[in-house]
Structure to design on (207 residues):
């Protein structure tokens, strides 16, 4: 997993409440266990006018030229609600989003973001509104999200602090998912297994 330290990038706005995971990545695309290849289907029912995904919807905000190649998504309350599918952060990351800023997130989605290399940032509703207004007024507006200092900074000098769990922050900062974190202790785990086998040999008798 790629480490997240600081990101300065174009921001895109999604002015919708309660965006659920079926809207983020519809169920018909949950046919793979690999984490790549889902970006093309992100927000499929909103991005396209047809089922095949060949006709972009000109009225959907992320299809606007000004938001192409955005890596930060600024949105509204309760982002990522609905089912717990991990494909939702996979699709967002594969599309190019590395950080999502919102007043609130669904808990499972929020934790899944950290496990897949995305930094979800919770700010107050007023702070998010201030970012909406600045990004909307300035095409190509870039925000800076700094995990070390736990701040979001705008070109006009707005700076907002956010809270993040220390353990989740450490893993994301070092680019470790749950498996990567556990593998730091591989030698100790193997030693424990050897000691356990020696102390309790009857547990390993083959019938």
């Amino acid at each position: 997993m790629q480490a997240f330290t600081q990101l300065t990038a174009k921001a895109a706005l999604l002015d919708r409440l309660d965006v659920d995971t079926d809207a983020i990545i519809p169920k018909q695309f949950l046919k793979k266990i690999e984490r790549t290849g889902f970006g093309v289907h992100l927000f499929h029912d909103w991005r396209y006018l047809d089922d095949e995904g060949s006709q972009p919807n000109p009225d959907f905000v992320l299809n606007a030229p000004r938001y192409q190649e955005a890596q930060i998504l600024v949105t509204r309350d309760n982002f990522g609600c609905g089912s717990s599918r991990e494909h939702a952060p996979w699709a967002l990351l594969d599309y190019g989003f590395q950080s999502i800023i919102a007043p609130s997130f669904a808990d499972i989605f929020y934790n899944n973001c950290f496990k897949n290399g995305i930094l979800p940032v919770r700010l107050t509703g007023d702070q998010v509104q201030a970012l909406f207004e600045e990004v909307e007024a300035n095409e190509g507006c870039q925000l800076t999200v700094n995990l070390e200092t736990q701040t979001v900074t705008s070109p006009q000098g707005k700076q907002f602090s956010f809270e993040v769990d220390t353990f989740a922050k450490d893993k994301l900062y070092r680019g470790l998912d749950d498996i990567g974190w556990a593998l730091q202790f591989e030698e100790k785990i193997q030693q424990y297994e050897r000691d356990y086998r020696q102390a309790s040999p009857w547990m390993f008798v083959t019938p």
